[in-house]
Structure formats: structure tokens, C-alpha cells
Design a protein that fits this description.
The chain is α+β, with helices and mostly antiparallel strands. It contains 10 helices and 40 strands. One of its GO terms (cellular component) is cytoplasm. It comes from Torulaspora delbrueckii.
């Protein structure tokens, strides 16, 4: 580091290792009398200039792979030089940025005459330039938010290509830059602009239909989107979005996807307000030109000026990308609608806002006045594979490499214990517990990786109702204290949600002597998996786990039923407690065999079919639980024993989500309950101490 002490950089130190190709450097010029501008000089890139307001500056810069020697120099000859190093993390799964065009598209986006004259048109090439700059801003913003949270320099990456770099105004070099896939839809412009597809049309018959249009276009495009082995991430903007004077057609703000494609979609109705080059960033973020509603849309009536149109739509597209990365709506931040102030993360002076009828935040605009990613979003990102740093692999609690979807590990399991207590188990570890009041999370418990000062994801937890209630904000207690939900997020596994959690903890102890167990044995119902409203309630089917010698599992495209066979000899001793190793893999399997004697005592849960698989237990072996795949019914089931043996996943092994159905440690399966229709619609276990 060299140069004057008059320039202080708040978020960039000498010799910093970075993984984001774009960075917004925050700083101040002390005793900078007369200084109005600061330039950033890079030996390989065009110089960039940013204004000083109240001595503060925010300089958004591009980095090149390897060493970056950056000189910050004011117009009063004060300077500071720092060296940082940028390493692209090509091993992390990228987001593919796309422009979707109709099969007969005019290849133009909506733009008022004043902007067309200023920019020389409104064609496809210009749209690509603008989208590339917007992508870099999203990366820089997210990197800053992760760093402020204490998670280091981390951000997601967009897929790049080596081509002429349009990030800067001068076309001088070929560099790695964001690749924009051009998706050609089978739909015509008229079809894409159908009012029944317009999300903001209250009378639309298919307001979410553009999501399917984008999915179809991705599949047609092929390439990375044809690979169904691992989920692909895509963010698609519709080029043919159009304001018809009444509706924004060919636009929907949606994010989510399937287990094969994680997708965010958005319209180009305000792309006219996005800068095509980084040198124009401040100019466009402070452009007070009034939005002409005769020519272009004023989205949600919050885009009265060009800078507000830029800010809102950049933030809204980022919001949808957040959904595709796994983030739900939150009570504040990008995942609410706080992105109307996203501009504050890039400028030190706010222009006049039609939306608020004010000049907004005072210069130099401090972090407390900026829009943020919510803490819960950032914790999710921390465990998302697109945010992986190489050093994460040195911390086993990260459980790298991460997975986006198609999880092979089960959801967490949760069991009511009585006395308003519950036990949570997870094979991979729970990293976040969210307390949901209404539609939004209002409190949470996080378990950060050990390398970031946390205890690491938890494999076995016992929580009390009073402990969880104490975290709820006092103003939420009257309405939600007895009705809040619980959401459990685990590493590389599906999450688990339980509505009305206080009711879940209300345990009714079932006297099991009425089912043939010794007096004093009490059972508790586990969570009911599958569809509680499907089929007919079959009541409790008791199973003395000590006497089960074999199970016949009836299955086809779903679980149809199970018949348990018992030994004639009464067991007096309780089976030993099986060891728990949540990180271990169950690799022993049952050998192909069949039940020799089916005439002995047995019970049936579900019903019999001609398609079945037999599982015969060895002496001293007993069932400790089930691995269940379920969604709208019980798709498939796997039996697990104390010897570590498992059956194959019997039924539709690719259906539903995976969850473990096991009693808490020290307790045993005493029976099954659930609903049965054409197949097993729902099932749970009865568990207790023997």
C-alpha cells in the first residue's frame, strides 16, 4: 500500500484476496478541501471517475484475474495505491444470464425517444450491454453484503465468455465478460404479449404462464440446459416486454424452479434506464428525467424518474434471483421491497425521488441507510454451493461440496417429547431454525460453521417451547405466540416446515396396554408424513418391534402396504439402544430372500398387492426406523435396522422428498398410523419407551 493517508478505504485492504469480478469500494477523503472527484486507475483497464460528496465516495470497479494494482487519485493530487488479487471460482455452479426473444421479435426493447436518441437506439446489442453491467452490480452488491455479515468476500458468479468486453465505453480489449444467452422462443411476439400472461393483469387467466415459456425456451436452447444430471441456474429477461398504455405485457417477476432448473424471470420494460457502460453508472443512478408513461411503463407507479426505474427493476430482478437461490420473502431487505433504495449502495448522493417526493438520504449515504440482503438470506447463501470458497473445504462443518437440489440426504426429523419439549435430529446438520409468524420469519437460531465462529450445524437438538417463544418479538406474541410455525434448514438436504408448532408439541400419551404391550408403556404419535387429508384413517396398527422377524412390503408406483410377521416366542428383554452416527452412511443391504412361513401371527398396514418385496431379519436384529420418500402420498419406503442394514427404496424411488422416520434415541417403534386409499396416503410411527 502506498500514497497519501488522506484517502481511507473502508472495505478494501492491501493484499486482499477477492472472488468477485466487481467491487464497490467505499471510502473517504480526509482534509480534501476542494476535491470533487476521485479516479480509479488500473493498469489493464480504462480509468473510472466517481464524485466526492461530503468527502465520501463509492467507486464500483472491475477486476481482472490475478493481481490488481489500484490507484485512487483525487482531482487535488491526493492518491492511494492498493494491490488486491482476484481469483474466479470456476468450480462453483454459475447463474446463466439470458435474454428471451419471440420467434418474430423485432429485437428491440421499450425505450422513450429521449433515451433512444441518447443511446443510439434500443436494439438487442444494447440490451446485452446493459444486462452485463446490471449483472456486475448484483455481484458487487452481494459480495459487500456477505463481507459485512462477517462471511468474507463471497458472491455468486454468472457464466462468462471470452469476447469483446462491453463493460467500458472504449472497445479496446477482449476479456472475460458475462455471457448472455439469447433464447429464441417458439412463441410469437403476439403470443408472449398476450394480456392473459401479464402478471400485473388482475384478470389474467395464466398470470404465471411466462415461467413455462422461459422453461420451454431453455430446453429448446439445449447446451447447459440439456444437462439434467445437476440442477442448472438461469436468470431470464424477456426482451419483448411492452407497455401498451394499460398493462406491462410479456413481463412477470417470478423466481423458483424445479429440481432440474432454478429460474428467475423478469421483463425488460425499464431496461432503457440501465447504463450500458460502467462509466455511466453514477449518471444513470442520478438521472432525474421524468418517465414518459405515454412511451414506457412506470412499474408499480414507483418509477417516476429514470433513476428510480433503474433502481427498482435492478433490485426486483435481483429479488427473483434470490428466490431461485432458495430465499423466501423476508420482513426487510431485497426479499421484501427495500430494493427501491438499492441505488444507495452505489452512490453518495441521492437524486430527487418522485416516489417519496424528496431527495432521500443525505450524503455521503451510510450503510445504515442502504438496502440489505436480510441476515437469513446471507446465511442461506453461506451454505449454497454457488458461494463456496476453497478454504471452506478445510472446515468439515461446511459439509462441502454443496448441493443445489436432488438431495440424497433426508430432511431433518422432529419429535415431540412431552412437557413442551421437542427433539430434532439431522443426518447432515441443521444450520438454521426459523420461527415463522404469519407469512414471515420473525426470529431465528443460526448455527454458523466453526471457521466463522459458530458451533457448526447441529445433528441432535432438544428445544423447549418457552425457549422458542422468548425469541419472538413482543409485538408478535399476542397473535402468534400460540400459532407460530417452525422451519428447519439442514445442509445438503431438504428443509422441514411445521405449521402451528405449539399444537405439534401438545403430546397425547397413548396407553399401549390396550394394544398388547405391558401396562405403563405409553406411545406418542410422530409427525404424519404424506397427505393427511387423503384416504381413510386406519387407526393404530401396533407392532411389537422385539418380535418382528420379517416384513413384506407391497409397492409399485407408490407404497401400498406392509405386513409384519412376528415370532411366536415372547421376548422379555428390551433390544439394546442402537448407536447414532448421523454422518455415517448406511451401506449394508438386505440380500434377496423370501419369507418361509407366512402362517404365523402378523399385522397389515395398508393393503396387499401382487407386487412385493420381502425383508427377513436376522436373529437379534430389529427395525429402528424408515427412510421415507413422500409428497402428496407415500412414494417409497426403506427399512433400516439396528445392524445398519437397509432395504432398497421400495416404490417410486425418485418421488417426493426424503425424510427419516425414527423414534428419538432411547425409544422404539410401537406401531404405525396413517391414511390409506388406493395406496398409502400418509403414515407415521407410534414411539415410546419399552
Amino acid at each position: 500500500m502506498g500514497g497519501s493517508d488522506a484517502i481511507e478505504l473502508f472495505n478494501l485492504q492491501d493484499q486482499t484476496q477477492l472472488v468477485s469480478p466487481c467491487l464497490t469500494v467505499h471510502g473517504t477523503c480526509k482534509n480534501a478541501t476542494g476535491a470533487r472527484m476521485i479516479q480509479v486507475l488500473h493498469p489493464q483497464l480504462p480509468r473510472l471517475s466517481y464524485p466526492l460528496n461530503e468527502s465520501g465516495f463509492k467507486a464500483t470497479i472491475i477486476l481482472t484475474p490475478g493481481e490488481n494494482r489500484l490507484t485512487f487519485a483525487t482531482d487535488t493530487n491526493k492518491s492511494k495505491t492498493v494491490t488486491c488479487y482476484y481469483t474466479p471460482l470456476l468450480q462453483d455452479p454459475p447463474i446463466h444470464l439470458c435474454l428471451l426473444v419471440a420467434k418474430d421479435s423485432p429485437l428491440e426493447f421499450d425505450s422513450p425517444k429521449v433515451q433512444r436518441d441518447k443511446e443510439g437506439g434500443n436494439g438487442l446489442d444494447l440490451a446485452v450491454k446493459k444486462l452485463r453491467v446490471g449483472a456486475r452490480l448484483m455481484q458487487a452488491y452481494t459480495n459487500e453484503q456477505m463481507m459485512r455479515a462477517g462471511f468474507g468476500n463471497r458472491t455468486f458468479r454468472f457464466l462468462e465468455e471470452f469476447t469483446w468486453d462491453t463493460t467500458f465505453q472504449q472497445r479496446s480489449e477482449m476479456r472475460n465478460t458475462v455471457k448472455i444467452h439469447i433464447l429464441r422462443s417458439d412463441k410469437s411476439t403476439k403470443e408472449i404479449r398476450d394480456a392473459n400472461l401479464a402478471q400485473q393483469n388482475p384478470n389474467a387467466s395464466d398470470a404465471g404462464g411466462l415461467f413455462g415459456v422461459a422453461m420451454d425456451a431453455l430446453q429448446k436452447y439445449g447446451g447447459p440446459f440439456a444437462d439434467r444430471v445437476k440442477p442448472v441456474q438461469a436468470a431470464v429477461m424477456f426482451l419483448d416486454t411492452h407497455w401498451d398504455g394499460n398493462l406491462i405485457t410479456a413481463h412477470a417477476a417470478l423466481g423458483g424452479g424445479t429440481d432440474e432448473v432454478k429460474l428467475a424471470i423478469f421483463g425488460s420494460h425499464a431496461l432503457f434506464a440501465w447504463p450500458p457502460h460502467l462509466e455511466q453508472l453514477v449518471e444513470y443512478f442520478t438521472d432525474e428525467t421524468r418517465t414518459s408513461k405515454k412511451e414506457v411503463a412506470n412499474d408499480c407507479d414507483e418509477c417516476g424518474t429514470h433513476w428510480e426505474a433503474f433502481t427498482l427493476t435492478l433490485g426486483a430482478f435481483l429479488h427473483e434471483i434470490g428466490h431461485s437461490l432458495g430465499c423466501p420473502h423476508e420482513e426487510s431487505g431485497v426479499m421484501l421491497r427495500d430494493y427501491t433504495t438499492l441505488n444507495r449502495s452505489f452512490v453518495t448522493r441521492e437524486a430527487f425521488s418522485i416516489r417519496t417526493n424528496s431527495y432521500g438520504a443525505k450524503s455521503p449515504i451510510y450503510p445504515k441507510e442502504e438496502c440489505t440482503w436480510h441476515r437469513l438470506d446471507l446465511v442461506r447463501f453461506l451454505y449454497h454451493p454457488s458461494f463456496t470458497l476453497p478454504q471452506d473445504y478445510l472446515d468439515p462443518s461446511f459439509l462441502r461440496p454443496g448441493e443445489i437440489d436432488k438431495f440424497t440426504e433426508p430432511k431433518p426429523s422432529i419429535y415431540a417429547l412431552g412437557d413442551d419439549l421437542c427433539r430434532i435430529t439431522s443426518r447432515t446438520g441443521v444450520y438454521l431454525i426459523e420461527i415463522v409468524c404469519g407469512d414471515l420469519t420473525k426470529a431465528y437460531i443460526e448455527y454458523l460453521p466453526v471457521s466463522l465462529g459458530g458451533p457448526g450445524p447441529q445433528h441432535d437438538l432438544t428445544l423447549s417451547l418457552s425457549e422458542l417463544r422468548s425469541l419472538i418479538p413482543p409485538n408478535e406474541m399476542p397473535e402468534h405466540g400460540n400459532s407460530f410455525g417452525l422451519k428447519l434448514l439442514s445442509v445438503n438436504a431438504p428443509g422441514l416446515e411445521i405449521g402451528k408448532f405449539p399444537d405439534f408439541l401438545k403430546v397425547t400419551f397413548i396407553p399401549m396396554d390396550q394394544y398388547g404391550f405391558p401396562r405403563g408403556v405409553q406411545g406418542v404419535k410422530s409427525q404424519l408424513l404424506g397427505n393427511p387429508s387423503g384416504g381413510q384413517d386406519v387407526g393404530i396398527v401396533p407392532i411389537d418391534i422385539r418380535r418382528v422377524t420379517a416384513v413384506r412390503i407391497y409397492h409399485g408406483g407408490a407404497l401400498d402396504g406392509m405386513r409384519f410377521y412376528f415370532s411366536s416366542q415372547t421376548e422379555s428383554a428390551n433390544p439394546p439402544v442402537p448407536p447414532r452416527n448421523y454422518l455415517g452412511k448406511l451401506v449394508k443391504s438386505f440380500k434377496a430372500t423370501s419369507i418361509d412361513n407366512t402362517s404365523g401371527k402378523n399385522v397389515l398396514f395398508g393393503y396387499e398387492t401382487g407386487s412385493y418385496t420381502d425383508a427377513v431379519l436376522e436373529e437379534g436384529e430389529y427395525i429402528t426406523g424408515f427412510n421415507v420418500r413422500c409428497g402428496g402420498w407415500i412414494d417409497a419406503l426403506q427399512i433400516v435396522t439396528n445392524e445398519g442394514r437397509v432395504t432398497k427404496m421400495l416404490g417410486n424411488e425418485g418421488g417426493g422428498g426424503l425424510i427419516e422416520l425414527r423414534p428419538p434415541e432411547g425409544q422404539y417403534i410401537l406401531g404405525l398410523y396413517g391414511n390409506v386409499g388406493q395406496w398409502v396416503d400418509a403414515m407415521g410411527i407410534i414411539y415410546g419407551r419399552l
